[in-house]
């Protein structure tokens, strides 16, 4: 799983370098060497273009290609049922671009609307490329948001039908580890993409017809940050609650069974406990305060050591 993710990121990093190289050569031929170098300076250094492309587009290609694998893992954990079929269907749909138009369409239009009110830090073909790149990144982020929302909806279906779910016998804990790892890896790369994208828009050097539009640079944080955090938390919270419920229900039923049934119930409790232990502890809502403290600490470090972010936050909050 990690190999496949880094493979997608590496491939898109190479693709990003090639695209920038080709466009720079064309701009050099059409305009001048200085014009092309200024384009590279804006896209690579000011806008963190390679970081945004690598993390954002790389993650998009990863979820479209490998997102269905967690559906297969869940299918190996729970016995087939209508509820599980619905969950698998939602997860598979979350990897299809055409199914996400109800989210990707409006969010991309928001990106188009906001970008229309930004004046690019360059002119000519370079400005057009920058606008197109910003809109495409909005689409990429909106598709990832759609994927995250569909995963959340899928696990919400699991939670609603928890009582009717049955755990497969001889379940391999590796399947649950895959689910947990997928959530952690994709949300982490997603957060990196959000950071690179947000910082890139702050340092890009856009100018505005009205100062109010500068405050809308926080739009990506508002749109994508909460969903990414909740996506990392909720599915594992659901799985943990399901296994805890199964353990508790088996314990309650032991007193009404004979010796053989008790032995079987103990084995089922042991198996459910083992599966429960495979789910990362982040799923426990009691740990959220400590994670919030960690997030605040990280923001404090970024605020202290990233002058561009510090300047924008100070301006946004009107701090002298």
Automatic annotation (TrEMBL):
The chain crosses the membrane at residues 9-32, 44-63, 100-120, 126-159, 179-198, 213-234. It comes from the Bacteria. Keywords: Membrane, Transmembrane, Transmembrane helix. The keyword Transmembrane helix applies. This is Uncharacterized protein. It comes from Maridesulfovibrio salexigens (strain ATCC 14822 / DSM 2638 / NCIMB 8403 / VKM B-1763) (Desulfovibrio salexigens).
